[in-house]
Design goal:
This is Tudor domain-containing protein 6-like. By secondary structure, this protein is an alpha+beta fold. Helices cover 20% and strands 33% of the residues. A hairpin with a 2-residue loop joins β68 and β69. α7 runs antiparallel to α8. The protein is globular. The chain starts with 12 loop residues before the first strand and ends in a 5-residue tail after the last strand. About 17% of the residues have low confidence.
């Protein structure tokens, strides 16, 4: 499904990491998804970091099947390809995960052009030469194969099926064991290849009937589902709750379409298994599937309604062919069976089935999808308070549990004999396991009454116990009350990982054996809470998002539960963090089944607690060393006590294979080491691709400066307090005999404060390097002191200054740039993006000040300064490069000093040796730029036209004004060049070669082969006539060869105007114009006249010059949209240009997935709108149309409007508080709300729908104008809603849906009159603005709009109405409000985004 290269060659041996396994029951093949190149992991990490900044989000329903895009899942962007689109739902294929995903447009974005260069991180394979003997995988084989994910193997690539991007991979150890246990057979590789190819082709050959698409569910994951049908414990249909609204909308569309239409587009389905539309016994139409052939039925046929999972017998006459638009929508209702119940357990009685229905049917429950077998998902359902419904039913029915083989532990080590032995033992009962010293499970070992070393309880029969992955995990009451009661028996030992160290008296350990369970839990948390909305917090145990990494963790609120920021402790790791309340969620009971994974400890019998400042770094070193060893760390429980909060505290010793932390620290404390005459250095775990907030402390140049990390500020402040205290207690001493070169010291800095330093030299003057700032300065003898031996903090805190350099900056930087950087950067805060890391620890970075890229700014300044330097020394007769592209810089009439500098930069960068005929490599400040050399087009030319004059840049740098008259009608030599071979409705891939504005720009074809040929021929023709005189009459329209003085090259041209010895010519292969001397013009050979011009003149469609004009800002924005970018133009019309004898094409342009015509609308000033505006000032009886910010089209209907029918005011009063939802959010000054009680809204919606259908064939009254109430059809769901006309334009009208607040453009034929009964009902939506922000006294920052939208959307809000006034531009009231969202006052939160106007007082 992916076209990215990177597949291995057949016959090669590869190391693979298996990530996922799928057993195909229909053909007996084993599908693997593997990581082929784990050594390039860091490259993919960099790529993942890079794509977190997408190009832009999707606008509405963008994208087509096959497009590459990014999808937002679990707080991160992932690479994907669109597979299909149905309504607002996208089925995408995750390129680097190898699986499908269902998304909405809000979670999709376009990636940068280089985001998809890397091949997929995960490749699809078929396990070579292994085929199920029974065409169906037995459970013992399934158990073995499903244990493979997470393991590394060596495999041999036998074949690569390029068309399907599938690798046939032989993994000898897996094949050997599969054959050994007689659950597979081995067949020759070529024969196996043919078999796989036939399997891949067979669905295509059976394309006579399309089938429903069921997206594959992610197993070993939780989902919220609605149970729609229960037939028995092995046949339960569940619908994913997340798509319930989409399914409901689709069901309504299906019913409405088949109720209203008799055209079904095909013959009635006949065969069993064919998708169809069927009318159910409830009278509604459904998406269905035939369960028997119609020809064999007796007037009645059995069907399955796929979206409900219900089977019914319906009359044959109620079967219709299913329209393709409904077939393409995926099915989100899945067949499930109770996990733990054998397929052949028993025959189910009606009483048992009814009991199961009472537990599940029509209820929304949390479901654990364990695995899939033969299209059926084995599921565990949870009810209120995490009650396991499976257990309740099994206990009631008194049945035997199924084999636990389907729940094997995920293996992280090579396949062991203990794993293989499970294949032969299918009837083992569930037992608790205790890990022995040899690492093998002990099925009969005893367990303690408190907590065994594996972290599991010993009571397997407890009703609260859940069997999953061979680990019986309970729901202990302490988990729900605090997750803190983690005590062990004294003398026990357990392998641990230390997850958090606060001090020697408080640190946190995790049990190593439970790491897999924790990993699964963390994965499920990210999936479950990635799209969860905030809810009120009523318990201290919750789920919180770590602000450092954006990851969700189980947590306990420690303090400030009702403030905007709360203190939480992550109960599985021990860390504490301050977290915004909006990033805290109530914990789903399903996530309480695993007890807290971090338990609190202190070191036992620490001899001298007063020396912990020295001992803590030693303990950290001990822990780091032990964690990196093969044996790891072992925790020995010496006693159990409680801390100051009453929480259990395990008194422990931490041991490695050869040492003990308590013993080591006792020795260190008794005999502290002598002070080292050097400071510690740290890399601070800064990774390539990582981002850090920094403070620049000093700068020598842009290639060598220093910063401190913002995250280290607390550590630095504490260390500085220690330094100040030491110096107060220390008697000043002369440094002569105490310090030498490289000695560490304290020295007085330029701010008169003392800091840590290192002596660079002592004579003839004392020079000190300030290690926490990066400066090296000369100091006096009185400004330097030695570091005392007892200064442990000052000695051991790592050096704070991190050396940096700007990435991709030349080494020879002008001193003016370095000085500018020092003056503007030192002492300021920035964000760095690490691009390169040298062995000495120096980082090369991209430096950002908010959205400003400092690297780009530095490069611009370097180019500007070098340009000035070059101009001062360049001669008047500079050589011009023989570039292969035509360059012209046309500037505005009112040339500013900045534009003059840019012009000089253009000329300077082109003044290179004439011997170099292929290298013009200047970057010209974004205005003139050489494109890809292989394309060899013209340099993009920015042109600004004022009235009818064009300014052309001469070789002697003079700027002269040329008038462009119309071509004379009597000219007999007009346009001898052929007309470009362009037809209406054709679409071409092009580049813009010359840009004046939306009404006048030239395009070249992206394929430049002909242009390259022409360049060569024109040079030869011009040089052959080097001394010839042009003998033909030079009249407007004459074709010729003209010398372009900027590069001294000959090009095909057409004369526009002649004035004495000067000619104004148009270069027909590029579109730019120039004034040339007559002596620089030659006749054009007929062979070159025969070539069609390679550039064609265009104008944007939809903007007639006689009906409006452009805003002055349009030229810069239009230029920047097109310059140096490939884009598509669709030819809509062609006519001859009025002033030059060439055709001009009216086009629709698309660039970077954007329609340029639509983007330019905001710069177009329609004369009709201006005329209407003038009329409105003269008559108050005409509604006023206004365009406001945020693309909100608004209106004002005067009191004397002929259409006196208006809606009532919403039933909202001042000083009342309402619970509402935001229905349409534009900005804090303009948003709409609806009351949470939707009974009135539903009634109005139903009445509007009925009224609209009753007027199905009614003609729209002509009296409907701006301000008129009406009924309008909303195209997205084909439903009728109450609306207000904003304006009419031709066959369309813009309307405001008064019950919701959103606006839409609809066809006039989709408007109807509004019955009086509906007019009398008050609108259910009401317009609001946030109180406390006067638009006349300030404005919002750009970030405000997205933040405000995120604060309000899809959340219940408490809204207090403070005042009401008439909106100045809309004939509706607007309410000034205060909003409380989840205990947080939104008005207060938004204050930081408000920029008050400076009154100058």
């Amino acid at each position: 499904m992916c076209s990215i290269p990177g597949l291995p060659t057949p016959g090669s041996e590869v190391a693979v990491l298996v990530t996922r396994v799928n057993l195909n029951p229909s053909n007996g093949l084993v599908e693997l998804w593997v990581n082929l190149d784990d050594e390039r992991k860091h490259i993919y990490e960099q790529m993942r970091e890079k794509i977190q900044i997408p190009k832009r989000n999707f606008n509405r329903l963008e994208g087509q099947p096959g497009d590459l895009c990014l999808v937002y899942i679990n707080d991160a962007w992932h690479r994907a390809r669109i597979v299909s689109i149905q309504s607002e739902t996208y089925n995408v294929f995750l390129i680097d995960q190898g699986q499908s995903h269902i998304a909405t447009g809000e979670t999709l974005a376009w990636g940068q052009s280089d985001s998809f260069l890397l091949p997929p991180e995960i490749e699809s394979c078929v396990l070579a030469n292994v085929l199920s003997l029974e065409n169906n995988w037995p459970e013992k084989a399934t158990t073995f194969l499903m244990s493979l994910p997470g393991k590394k193997f060596k495999g041999l690539v036998q074949h690569v099926l390029m068309s399907d991007r599938i690798i046939l991979l032989d993994i000898p150890i897996v094949s050997k064991h599969m054959c050994k246990y007689r659950v597979a057979k081995k067949i020759p590789s070529e024969e196996f290849k043919c078999l796989v190819e036939n399997c891949l082709k067979s669905p295509k050959g059976e394309a006579s009937e399309a089938q429903y698409f069921y997206p594959e569910l992610l197993t070993e994951a939780f989902e919220m589902v609605s149970v729609t049908e229960v037939m028995n414990p092995l046949n339960i249909f569940c619908q994913l709750q997340i798509f319930s609204k989409a399914v409901k909308l689709l069901s309504e569309q299906v019913h409405q379409r088949y109720e209203e239409s008799s055209d079904y587009g095909g013959a009635q389905p006949q065969r069993c298994g064919t998708p169809c539309a069927a009318r159910g016994t409830n009278g509604r139409w459904h998406r269905s599937l035939l369960k028997q052939n119609i020809v064999t039925s007796d007037g009645v046929v059995e069907v399955l309604h796929v979206d409900e999972g219900k089977t019914e017998s319906v009359p044959v006459g109620d079967i219709r062919p299913l329209l393709g638009e409904f077939l393409r929508m995926p099915v989100f209702t899945y067949l499930c069976s109770l996990n733990g119940v054998k397929e052949d357990a028993k025959k189910w009685t009606a009483e048992e089935t009814d009991y199961l229905k009472s537990l599940l049917l029509n209820k929304t429950v949390v479901t654990w999808f364990d695995h899939q077998n033969k299209g059926v998902y084995r599921a565990t359902f949870y009810g209120a308070k995490a009650t396991c419904i499976n257990d309740s039913f099994i206990e009631k029915a008194g049945i035997i549990l199924s084999s636990p083989e389907q729940d094997l532990n995920d293996q992280t080590e090579p396949i062991s004999s203990s794993l293989l032995s499970t294949l032969g033992d299918t009837d083992r009962c569930v037992q608790k396991t205790v890990t022995k010293n040899d690492g093998l499970p002990d099925q009969t070992g005893s367990v303690s009454k408190n907590r065994v070393l594996s972290g599991r309880t010993d009571d397997a029969s407890s009703s609260g116990t859940l069997t999953h992955n061979n680990a019986c995990l309970d729901f202990p009451p302490e988990v729900q009350s605090g997750c803190d009661n983690s005590a062990f028996t004294v003398g026990s030992s357990v392998d641990v990982k230390i997850s958090c160290i606060e001090s020697l008296q408080k640190f946190w350990c995790q049990i190593t054996d439970s790491s897999d369970a924790l990993k699964r839990l963390m994965k499920e948390l990210q999936t479950h809470y990635s799209f969860a909305y905030p809810q009120p917090i009523v318990e201290s145990i919750c789920v919180a998002r770590n602000p450092d990494n954006g990851t969700w963790y189980r947590a306990k609120i420690m303090a400030n539960q009702h403030s905007p920021v709360v203190n939480v402790r992550f109960i599985d790791y021990g860390e504490t963090r301050k977290v915004p309340l909006q990033d805290v969620r109530p914990i789903d009971p399903a996530f309480l089944r695993l007890s807290a994974q971090a338990f609190q400890c202190c070191l036992f019998n620490l001899m001298d607690p007063t020396r912990t400042n020295h001992a803590l770094p030693e303990f950290q070193k001990f822990v780091d060393s032990g964690a990196s060893s093969n044996t790891g760390l072992k925790c020995i429980v010496k006693g159990v006590t409680s801390d100051e909060d009453g929480l259990l505290l395990n008194m422990v010793d931490i041991e490695t294979a050869s040492d003990s932390a308590c013993k080591l620290l006792a020795q260190k404390c008794a005999h502290p080491p002598g002070p080292s005459d050097a400071f510690n250095y740290s890399t601070y775990d800064i990774k390539i691709g990582g981002r850090e907030k920094v403070w620049v402390t000093s700068s020598e140049s842009v290639n060598n400066f220093y910063c401190q990390l913002e995250r280290n500020s607390d550590m630095f402040d504490k260390m500085m307090k220690n330094v100040v205290q030491l110096l107060r207690e220390q008697t000043p001493r002369r440094p002569d005999n105490l310090l030498g070169n490289n000695s560490i010291c304290f020295a007085r800095y330029t701010d008169n404060q003392w800091y840590r330093g290192q002596v660079v030299k002592m004579s003839p003057e004392i020079k000190v390097h300030f290690v926490d700032h990066g400066d090296t300065l000369v100091v006096s003898e009185t400004d330097i002191q030695p570091v005392p031996s007892e200064a442990s903090v000052a000695r051991h805190v790592p050096v704070q200054a991190v050396p940096l350099g700007l990435f991709n900056i030349p080494t020879d930087v002008p001193q003016e740039v370095n000085q500018w950087f020092e003056e503007n950067a030192v002492g300021c805060n920035f964000t760095i993006l690490v691009v390169e890391k040298r062995e000495d620890g120096k980082l090369f970075v991209e430096l950002f000040e908010e959205s400003l890229n400092i690297n780009v700014k530095v490069r611009e300044k370097i180019a500007e300064i070098k340009s000035k330097m070059s101009l001062s020394s360049s001669s008047k007769q500079a050589h011009v490069s023989k570039a292969r592209c035509l360059t012209q810089k046309l500037v505005k009439a009112s040339t500013t000093e900045q534009n003059a500098v840019r012009d000089r930069m253009v000329r300077d960068e082109l003044q290179m040796s004439s011997k170099s005929s292929a290298d013009v490599s200047a970057l010209l400040d974004g205005h003139v730029k050489v494109l890809d050399e292989e394309r060899k087009p013209t340099l993009s030319v920015k042109v600004t036209v004022a009235e009818t004059s064009i300014h052309s840049c001469h070789s002697d740098s003079e700027v002269i004004e040329l008038s462009v008259p119309s071509c004379p009608k009597g000219n007999v030599n007009i346009c001898q060049f052929k007309t470009p071979n362009i037809s209406q409705n054709q679409t071409h891939e092009v580049y813009a070669s010359s840009i004046v504005g939306p009404h006048y720009f030239w395009c070249q074809y992206a394929n430049s082969d002909i242009l390259n040929t022409l360049l060569k021929l024109t040079q030869e023709a011009g040089q052959a006539q080097q001394h010839a005189i042009f003998g033909e009459p030079l009249e407007p329209g004459s074709p010729c060869l003209a010398l372009f003085v900027s590069d001294n090259q000959w090009y095909r041209a057409q004369v526009i105007q002649k004035a004495g010895n000067k000619l104004n010519v148009l270069f027909v292969d590029y579109g730019n114009e120039s004034e040339v001397d007559v002596e620089h013009v030659r006749s054009l050979p007929q062979s070159l006249v025969a070539f069609v011009p390679q550039a064609f003149l265009c104008s944007l469609s939809g903007f007639e010059e006689l009906k409006g004009s452009w805003d002055d800002k349009v030229h810069d924005d239009f230029y920047n949209l097109l310059v140096d970018k490939p884009f598509k133009v669709t030819i809509l019309n062609m006519e001859n240009h009025s002033e030059i004898a060439v055709p001009q094409y009216t086009v629709r342009a698309e660039c970077d997935e954007l329609v340029i015509n639509e983007l330019m609308q905001k710069y177009w000033k329609s004369l009709s709108a201006e005329h209407s505006k003038n009329e409105m000032t003269q008559s108050e009886t005409i509604p006023k149309v206004i365009q406001t910010t945020g693309n909100i089209t608004q209106f004002d209907v005067s009191k004397e409007n002929n259409n006196t029918s208006t809606y009532k005011n919403p039933e909202i009063t001042v000083n009342t508080t309402e619970m509402v939802y935001a229905s349409s959010v534009a900005e804090p000054h303009y948003f709409w709300c609806q009351c949470t009680n939707t009974a009135d809204l539903e009634a109005v919606t139903q009445l509007a729908q009925e009224a609209g259908q009753e007027q199905q064939d009614t003609v729209l009254p002509e009296t409907l104008g701006p301000g008129s109430p009406c009924l309008a059809l909303f195209s997205s769901d084909s439903q009728w809603y109450r609306a207000l006309v904003i304006r009419k334009a031709g066959n369309t009208a813009e309307v405001l849906f008064v019950d919701y607040g959103n606006e839409s453009e609809v066809n006039i034929k989709d408007l109807r009159s509004l019955p009086q009964s509906l007019l009398e009902k008050a609108p259910q939506g009401f317009l609001c603005c946030l109180k406390g922000f006067d638009e006349s006294k300030g404005c919002w920052e750009d970030e405000a709009y997205e933040e405000f939208h995120n604060l309000l959307v899809d959340k219940p809000l408490k809204l207090t109405v403070c005042s009401m006034k008439a909106h100045p531009e809309i004939a509706l009231p607007q309410y000034s409000v205060e909003i409380d969202c989840e205990g947080v006052v939104v008005n207060t939160l938004m204050e930081k985004y408000w920029k008050a106007e400076d009154t100058g007082m």
